[in-house]
Amino acid sequence: MEGDDCEFRYGDGTNEAQDNDFPTVERSRLQEMLSLLGLETYQVQKLSLQDSLQISFDSMKNWAPQVPKDLPWNFLRKLQALNADARNTTMVLDVLPDARPVEKESQMEEEIIYWDPADDLAADIYSFSELPTPDTPVNPLDLLCALLISSDSFLQQEIVLKMALCQFALPLVLPDSENHYHTFLLWAMRGIVRTWWSQPQRGVGSFREDSVVLSRAPAFAFVRMDVSSNSKSQLLNAVLSPGHRQWDCFWHRDLNLGTNAREISDGLVEMSWFFPSGREDLDIFPEPVTFLNLRGDIGSHWLQFKLLTEISSAVFILTDNISKKEYKLLYSMKESTTKYYFILSPYRGKRNTNLRFLNKLIPVLKIDHSHVLVKVSSTDSDSFVKRIRAIIGNVLRAPCRRVSVEDMAHAARKLGLKVDEDCEECQKAKDRMERITRKIKDSDAYRRDELRLQGDPWRKAAQVEKEFCQLQWAVDPPEKHRAELRRRLLELRMQQNSHDPSSGVQEFISGISSPSLSEKQYFLRWMEWGLARVAQPRLRQPPETLLTLRPKHGGATDLGEPLWPEPLGVEHFLREMGQFYEAESCLVEAGRLPAGQRRFAHFPGLASELLLTGLPLELIDGSTLSMPIRWVTGLLKELHVRLERRSRLVVLSTLGVPGTGKSTLLNTMFGLRFATGKSCSPRGAFMQLITVAEGFSQDLGCDHILVIDSGGLIGGALTSAGDRFELEASLATLLMGLSNVTVISLAETKDIPAAILHAFLRLEKTGHMPNYQFVYQNLHDVSVPGPRPRDKRQLLDPPGDLSRAAAQMEKQSDGFRALAGLAFCDPEKQHIWHIPGLWHGAPPMAAVSLAYSEAIFELKRCLLENIRNGLSNQNKNIQQLIELVRRL
Q1: What's this model's pTM, rounded to 2 decimal places?
Q2: Where is the signal peptide (predicted)?
Q3: Which of 1, 196, 318, 540 is an S-S bond match for 228, by CB 3.0 to 4.6 Å?
């Protein structure tokens, strides 16, 4: 931007010729980048989250990108796996001349044109160019911006969420170099929840958990004016890095992950945070702090700079020169209450000119000589970093501005920036959510008064159905008892069917019945966050303080008691719909209700559509620990209709006690959305559907993979009464019996729950044994080595008392057998995996470790290879799965 006054009248029509000419150049630059990356086709029909999660040939190999069009998919694949190398845009060119990109061939011709073909040296140069060489045509920030521009709102949200888990700096303002219509990414940030501890740790009260969109913190912005020989990003990384460990939160030029100049990402505003752990030896600051980084020069991106000055407690300006133009820019900020600090280089700038303008700015910006810092670029010294931290610490101790991301979005709107959350569909969905959640004052009371079919009616009906099911297998069961159970069940179902859906449930049904797929997805996300916000503040406490299974006075376990406080969630509304359908179906089957009078027959169809959009649905009810069989089979029938010919399934399940990383493993492996952490996880088993790409389904032998997460069903303890153990064993048998592949997650050696061993013993007798993998997850120390070969048999040897109990319950004539002795288990085969620790560093500032990500990828590759090679049970279609559900 040129001219003294254009910075003050952004978009006001001044210098119309310039405004018309400038976007033309930028437009071609953006379109060229999108074309280079193969993303131009996604400008009308955006790339969706479901597109990015499909299982394809590439899911089974750890490939390196060879052409620029590989880069977006390589980034998404690595980001899904929480791989710390996801930002690497280095390519390995194919050694075959005909496989090389055309543009690279033309470049090579230009490079050798000055050499005599007869020259031996020229021949050597030419042959050298045939070798695989790394190439970086795309800056990682350009790749990120191009991908976000090409993605729909839900894929954008997933990208930002995964970047947060990797501790990458997040995009806050997305520049649009074609239309100059920049977007503030509020919606994309919505799903991020962070935890931290205040200093010093003093019990539960010091623990905090909140959405980064809603929590307020002081913000500090780092910007460049004109030219600076010092790197903002490297300085920010140094400020954020504890001790001598360097964290590359913000990408910078020395990372060698893609060093080309930025083409479309100038104007990008990035955000990161510091969160304290409660340990004074680790914490740089005593409270959460927000850091903002503007890419590019403030003179060219005045709107973004204006936003940063309005939301920040202090702005650090890195520059080598202060000219008349820059002075005028800063003079316009004279009304700002933000603190300003200048970071200069002693060698590159015009010293006298800088001093003259700084002296003029002292009264304007209300600064003094302590606000001017000099940094020697060649020595990123610890003392300079400490000085920056000290300045930030002084600002924190004084009264200062504290803002949330929502507050920032409000300021962005006033400046004319587009906010992604302001689209009509998103706002309609939010309004619907608020009409539901504003009535929730107490979650227990709401469940009792609004979700009436759950609680005692459903619990009693589930118990009667269990007894009735057990009679089916009894030898010559008494008909009188069977009739009594049937009568009791009908009474309970008639009682349920006498109710109408409450206003909140009706509003929920309207939300998921929307003809707009986007509005439906927006509504479900809003419901998740809204319910989490209003219904579970009492659950925000450290994981170790959560409740465990509580025995009743006599020592026996109450099967109705929760393993931990179950938060109110979307599954409760779907559970209520399921109970309306169950009650109605039961009465129709018994001839008590004409089929033509059904009101809820369309409910399974609504639920199946949610499953197809990627929402995890409850398979086993967490409140009663039972399966609503009519609801589940009805849902699967509707799924079969919607999938038509693509209904071949592989069922993959995980089993293990809570806290062993099952859900995190599945989410990392396949990009799924199972709830993680005891404080927010429902108790039931949930299922989620993954699509196999059509070009790969024939090779893999299935069209979809149905993934089942057992959640908190398996407690891992053997109760004295045996009731809980028998129930858990039955549920484990059910899940394994439905599965082609089962992953058993273990926290430490000799930690195989007795209920899972019991399920193995049962299934061994039936001959239905899934392909199984034992996953030993190191939940603490990343440096602990995996079990040695001689340890594998110990890992498969459960404690003797659990083996004896399981065998006794199965009435095994040979007493008990260790798991390693079963016919299906060979310790020498690759059934056992050691997964390194999840975190690299100390939470909450830890990133996911590269070793964890790579180990999960290898496990995924093995599972898919086993499926393709037919090592799992015979793949089934949905109709066969329905029949298997009924039998089991």
Answers
A1: 0.86
A2: none
A3: 318
pLDDT digits (tens, 9 = 90+) for 178-195: 777 899 999 999 999 999
Measure CA 328 to chain center: 44
3-class DSSP state for residue 848? strand
Strands 183-184 and 876-877, sheet pairing: unpaired
The backbone torsions φ and ψ at residue 190, rounded to the nearest 5 degrees and listed phi first, read -55, -35
- pLDDT cut 90: percent of the chain above it: 49
Q: How far apart are CA 875 and CA 853, in angstroms?
A: 28
If phi > 0 it is left, if psi is from -120 to 50 it is alpha, else beta; for residue 571 that is alpha
For residue 381, the tally of other CB atoms under 10 A from its CB is 12
**Amino acid type, 28:** S
Contacts of 665 (CB under 8 A, 6+ apart): 654, 743, 745, 775, 777, 835, 856, 859
pLDDT digits (tens, 9 = 90+) for 306-333: 999 999 999 999 998 888 888 888 888 8
Here the tokens at position 758 are 């019991």
User: How far is the C-alpha of 651 from the C-alpha of 708, rounded, in Å?
Assistant: 7
Residue 136, SS3 per DSSP = coil
* Interatomic CA distance for residues 880 and 789, integer angstroms: 39
* Paired strand residues for 270: 171, 293
The C-alpha atoms of residue 149 and residue 43 are separated, in whole angstroms, by 8
Distance, CA of 391 to CA of 371 (rounded, Å): 9
CA distance 712 to 563: 8
Cα–Cα distances in Å, from 615 out to 46, 569, 574, 705? 20, 13, 11, 14
Give the closest residue to 268 by CA, choosing from 152, 393, 149, 387.
149
285 SS3 class: coil
The answer to whether the bond into 200 is cis (omega within 30° of 0) is yes
- Cα dihedral 278, 279, 280, 284, rounded to 10, equals -70
**Model pLDDT, residue 186:** 98
* pLDDT score recorded for residue 851: 93
Q: Given the structure tokens 């521009």, which residue do they identify?
A: 149
Name, in order, each residue with C-beta under 8 angstroms of 369's C-beta and a sequence gap of 6 or more.
Answer: none
- Ordered alpha helix ranges (H), 250-381: 302-311, 324-331, 351-365
Please, what are the domains in the chain?
28-91+136-167 (no CATH), 217-401 (3.40.50), 423-539+567-600 (no CATH), 620-782+804-887 (3.40.50.300)
State phi, psi for 650 to the nearest 5 degrees.
-120, 130
Please report which helix (H) or strand (E) contains residue 519, including its range: helix 517-535
Q: Which two tokens stand for residue 564?
A: 């931990």
Q: Determine the pLDDT at residue 683.
A: 74
pLDDT in tens, 780-796: 543 334 443 334 445 45
